[in-house]
């Protein structure tokens, strides 16, 4: 299979690397928007900026510049950008791919979050598949999600992913592309549920980082994860997702990984906020995207529009907006009225 991965951050690189190691012998190209970074990656055979210490397999091709020739041959296009770049990327590639008619390859994204509406706009923050529907509704699309740190996938440590799409051929293409070696890919047709899980767990991982940074204890962390799963599920159901999805890999699975795993960027943001470090400095030191920071407000706004209560996510928004300190956030949550579970 001819696979093109657009976007050479940590996750795009790890996913391209996994596809290039598939025993079927796929032809895999990792496309980077930054030509200098592409050259450096090719010379070092390592993405030192985003995935250091990982040697890229010889079969993995690196490219930059206009991706038209790559897209003309692609049988699967994987978008490795953050949510913020998904709309623009789809705008760029959709005309060429749509022109292939029935031969158009599936397009799948890896991002987890909601789009931030432009400042001052009243439109809701959209999930990735809603962005795709507004930009390129005719393309066969899907999402690859689930509990997966790039570094572990790149080291071929066992990982279970979810391939979600409304289209069975897209799900099948994803299985053929990635299911092998230490990667297991589970199919799911609940795209909304999978995307809500992927977005909300990032916000909740910030909250868990705060909880652990303040050394509130293991009981508090378990309570936070459990109540977080409840609010993730409430929002997901209200948006049309299915309950069982939130009990699966892209729900509780990714929430537990991101909220507790030391490799999580979102959790790291929470740990640093607990030390009262300023957010801009935290984001700069991270060097990678932490989607929870960018989608927390959109999550809470969509929940409010649907009458869904999300107290943990709302508390994270107040903290990110500088309306309270980490300790005040905890105090506010502990002072809430008693409620039924
Ligand atoms: N890193 C992981 O372990 C992991 C795992 C699963 C999912 N994800 C998700 O995948 C997405 C990408 O994460 P990552 O870890 O690769 O991020 P990263 O910070 O390592 O890299 C981001 C990449 O996106 C590119 N980029 C940033 N802004 C852009 C723009 N405006 N236009 C085009 N490209 C742009 C950067 O050049 C870089 O290549 C995120 O939504 C993340 O939540 C990450
Ligand atoms: O490092 P994070 O917090 O962006 O999480 C990475 C993955 O989404 C975990 O599944």
UniProtKB/TrEMBL annotation:
EC number: 1.1.1.94
GO molecular function, one term: NAD binding
Compartments in which it is found: Cytoplasm
Residues that hold NAD(+) according to the record: 7-12, 150, 265
InterPro entries per the UniProt record, alphabetical: 6-PGluconate_DH-like_C_sf, 6PGD_dom2, G3P_DH_NAD-dep, G3P_DH_NAD-dep_C, G3P_DH_NAD-dep_N, NAD(P)-bd_dom_sf
Family label: Belongs to the NAD-dependent glycerol-3-phosphate dehydrogenase family.
Protein name, entry field: Glycerol-3-phosphate dehydrogenase [NAD(P)+]
Organism of derivation: Allofranklinella schreckenbergeri
Gene name of this polypeptide: gpsA
């Amino acid at each position: 299979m001819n696979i093109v991965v657009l976007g050479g951050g940590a996750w795009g690189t790890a996913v391209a690397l996994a596809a290039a190691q598939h025993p079927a012998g796929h032809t895999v190209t990792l496309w980077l928007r930054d030509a200098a970074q592409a050259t450096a990656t090719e010379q070092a055979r390592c993405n030192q900026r985003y995935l250091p210490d990982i040697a890229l397999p010889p079969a993995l091709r690196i490219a930059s510049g206009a991706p038209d020739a790559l897209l003309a041959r692609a049988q699967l296009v994987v978008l490795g950008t953050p949510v913020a770049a998904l709309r623009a990327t789809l705008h760029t590639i959709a005309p060429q791919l749509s022109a292939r008619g029935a031969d158009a390859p599936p397009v799948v994204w890896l991002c987890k979050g909601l789009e931030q509406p432009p400042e001052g706009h009243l439109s809701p923050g959209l999930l990735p598949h809603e962005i795709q529907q507004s930009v390129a509704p005719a393309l066969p699309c899907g999402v690859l999600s689930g509990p997966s740190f790039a570094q572990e996938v790149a080291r071929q440590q066992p990982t279970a992913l979810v391939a979600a799409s409304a289209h069975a051929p897209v799900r099948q293409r994803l299985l053929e592309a990635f299911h092998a070696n230490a990667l297991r890919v589970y199919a799911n047709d609940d795209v909304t549920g999978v995307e809500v899980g992927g977005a909300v767990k990032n916000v909740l991982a910030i909250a868990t980082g705060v909880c652990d940074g303040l050394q509130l204890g293991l009981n508090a962390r378990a309570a936070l994860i459990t109540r977080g799963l409840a609010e993730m599920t409430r929002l997901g159901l209200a948006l049309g997702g299915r309950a069982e999805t939130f009990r699966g890999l892209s729900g509780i699975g990714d929430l537990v990984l991101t909220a507790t795993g030391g490799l999580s960027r979102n959790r790291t943001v929470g740990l640093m906020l607990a030390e009262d470090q300023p957010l801009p400095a935290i984001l700069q030191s991270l060097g990678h995207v932490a989607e929870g920071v960018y989608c927390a407000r959109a999550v809470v706004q969509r929940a409010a529009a649907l009458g869904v209560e999300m107290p943990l996510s709302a508390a994270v928004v107040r903290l990110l907006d500088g309306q309270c300190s980490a300790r005040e956030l905890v105090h506010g949550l502990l002072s809430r009225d008693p409620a039924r579970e």
